[in-house]
Amino acid sequence: MSSSVESVLSVPSNSTGEARINVSPYLLDCMAVMIVAGTWVTENTTLVSLGFLLAALLAVWATFSAKRLRQYILDIPQSKIASAAQGFVELQGKARFYGDRTTQGFTHGPPCVWHRFTIFGLVATLVKTGESELPFIISDDSGDCVVNASGAKIISSSRRAWFEGLTYYRTKFIRHGAQVYVIGELRTNGCDKSFYSPKTELSNVLRTWKEDSAWLLEEFDKDNNGELDFEEWEAARKRAEQIAIDKYEVKRKDHVETAIRKPSNGMPMLISDKSPAILARNFRYLGIFNLLVAAFCVIALFYGVVR
């Protein structure tokens, strides 16, 4: 890889992600059209029939896929992050960086929480393709949720392309601060009970108090005899228990992290900076288009057989 490409990709924490081949959701349409175009110029009747049959099957599959995704969007009710039930949910909110990250993606261009890139060299030679794999946050007026985009179907409206010398860069991305729509499986991870429990906190509080014996006597030695009797010690223990419970609740809340990810049952995860209404409309049009392609292929197939 050239040094200019390396410089563009040199971003903190490898936020460009690992190289991978990304399949466009419209790939089936392109394949169907290419098959039709290829079979149109051949004189082999068998190849023509097989080509149109394969194109029709691809278009039918794409029709049902688009319909399923549209229904998927329409059927799932939107939830607030704080009140969302565990399991399959739809969330909407503002996208922002996870943790203390302040940048992600290429070294120049708008800040983004997710991006996919393709780099071409001379004569349209593919140099590298990949996408970011870092999580990001989605926030609404009720709280925050971590988005694990691994394995998700991501539809972004933002894109950018530019040349640097003889190298061509093309990216799709979701901007930092954009309104994001997410469907996936919600899970809340609580604190580790082996480290954060009321019993552990009580032991910590009592140990700290015992190390300051002068304060302990001043606070709980009611008869001023220089030692704590059973009742005085029980009073100290009860106060320590309440303090321990309060400290435990603070730590528990600080270590609870709500995250949305690709469902474990095989259902798709969908992430987009487009509104659900626009996505549903686009999938409806895509389904109609594929149905027309399938119908054309079937008519052409029967026409060829009759001829």
Characterization of this structure:
- The chain is elongated, with a radius of gyration of 30 Å.
- The chain has two domains: 3-78 and 97-132 and 152-178 and 275-306, no CATH class; 198-254.
- By secondary structure, the protein is an alpha+beta fold.
- Residues 1-25 and 191-195 have low confidence and may be disordered.
- Helix content is 42%, strand content 24%.
- The protein starts with a helix and ends with a helix.
- The chain has seven helices and eleven strands.
- α2 runs antiparallel to α3 (45-75), α3 runs antiparallel to α7 and α4 crosses α6 (230-254).
Set out the fold topology:
Elements: H1 3-9, H2 27-40, H3 45-75, E1 87-97, E2 112-120, E3 126-131, E4 136-140, E5 143-147, E6 153-155, E7 158-164, E8 167-175, E9 179-189, H4 198-211, H5 213-220, H6 230-254, E10 257-261, E11 270-272, H7 276-306
Parallel strand pairs: 5-10, 6-11
Antiparallel strand pairs: 1-4, 1-9, 2-3, 2-8, 4-5, 7-8, 9-10, 9-11
Helix pairs in contact: 2-3, 3-7, 4-6
